[in-house]
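Good morning,

Attaching, inline, the backbone tokens for the sequence recovery test we're adding to the shared suite. The designed sequence is right after.
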């Protein structure tokens, strides 16, 4: 079912162009994101802006009056794209002057583009979440003309070059004879209107660049490369059109101890040979839990992994925490004094069942320390 564009602006089907423009300006002043930050108001602002763009375009308004929806038909296509011939339109335009019909003027009020901001966070900030105040430099609504682009009570005038059509045509000779082509009007940039007395602050664009500070709330569990979207905090569009979104991209900084793999955390523990044989406890300062005890069981072998469930990073969507993995490295002393040597010799004589074995090289551990292997596994470096 076609959308009720007249109802969105609160005007009747017989409304004049000036009545439609006045209705849009009234609603835009009430719903613009810079004036009304409510998300519902932002959605309504985008709807009324789309309605104004449609009803201010004679061809699109004619489609509405016939019961159609020009915005839906533009994206639906007919096998060749939109606008009748779509993908073949450029060919027909080049040889027959516009593919059987003109494009018509484009709306002066257009949606703004999205903006991207990169934010560096350490592992603790990614784990707990954080609210940060950042400074952004974007286009905002001109406070002098409220997006109209005109100075005082002046109004736009029809372009004398294209006579409001938004495009100009030219005839050229070719091997096929005379060829008529169309292109956007160079004077009004395809709008069909010019502003004789533009706003002194924005120069007729309806927006100005400004530096402003906004608050960004980063949820717990975010990871490197994830983006947080702030609706309608991007660039205000030409003519005071609805603002795009601001995307904040997280860049997680490497941690001195922990290596992250999704919601799990990995770290290395160097344990003396005697402690690995007899068993011990090791304390580590966990990201969210503070001092945490790691049990190294008696007889722990090199390369063993001790896992603490639920002590890792929170999942950004569910909040369920991953696991904390302690990779045990057994440290064998390289220098022994006389007493150490004698004690180990007695232990060797006592443990006669321990013998040296030759095993396949396929079972030998790969070279490099734990951190080197972990970084190759989890970061590809």
């Amino acid at each position: 079912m076609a959308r009720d564009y007249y109802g969105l602006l609160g005007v009747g089907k017989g409304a004049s162009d000036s009545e439609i423009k006045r209705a849009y300006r009234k609603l835009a002043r009430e719903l613009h994101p810079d004036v009304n930050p409510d998300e519902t108001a932002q959605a309504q602002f985008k709807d009324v802006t789309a309605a104004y763009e449609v009803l201010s375009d004679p061809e699109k308004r004619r489609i509405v009056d016939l019961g159609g929806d020009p915005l839906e038909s533009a994206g639906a296509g007919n096998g060749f794209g939109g606008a009748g011939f779509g993908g073949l339109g450029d060919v027909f335009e080049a040889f027959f002057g516009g593919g059987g019909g003109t494009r018509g003027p484009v709306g002066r009020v257009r949606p703004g583009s999205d903006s991207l901001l990169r934010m560096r966070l350490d592992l603790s900030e990614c784990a707990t979440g954080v609210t940060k105040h950042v400074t952004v430099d974007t286009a905002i609504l001109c406070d002098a003309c409220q997006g109209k682009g005109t100075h005082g009570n002046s109004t736009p005038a029809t372009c004398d070059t294209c006579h409001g059509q938004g495009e100009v045509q030219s005839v050229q000779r070719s091997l096929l004879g005379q060829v008529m082509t169309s292109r956007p009007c160079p004077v009004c940039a395809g709008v069909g209107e010019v502003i004789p007395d533009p706003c002194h602050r924005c120069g007729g664009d309806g927006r100005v660049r400004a530096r402003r500070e906004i608050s960004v709330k980063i949820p717990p569990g975010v990871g490197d490369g994830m983006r947080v979207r702030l609706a309608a905090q991007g660039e205000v569009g030409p003519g005071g059109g609805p603002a795009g979104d601001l995307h904040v991209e997280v860049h997680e900084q490497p941690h001195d101890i922990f290596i992250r793999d999704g919601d799990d955390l990995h770290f290395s523990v160097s344990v003396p040979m005697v402690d690995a044989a007899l068993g011990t406890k090791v304390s580590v300062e966990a990201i969210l839990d503070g001092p945490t005890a790691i049990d190294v069981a008696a007889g722990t072998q090199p390369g063993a992994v001790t896992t603490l469930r639920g002590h890792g990073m929170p999942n950004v969507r569910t909040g369920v925490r991953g696991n904390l993995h302690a990779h045990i490295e057994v440290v064998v002393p390289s220098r022994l004094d006389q007493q150490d040597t004698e004690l180990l010799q007695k232990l060797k004589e006592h443990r006669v069942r321990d013998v040296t074995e030759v095993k396949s090289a396929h079972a030998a551990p790969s070279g490099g320390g734990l951190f080197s292997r972990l970084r190759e596994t989890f970061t590809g470096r």
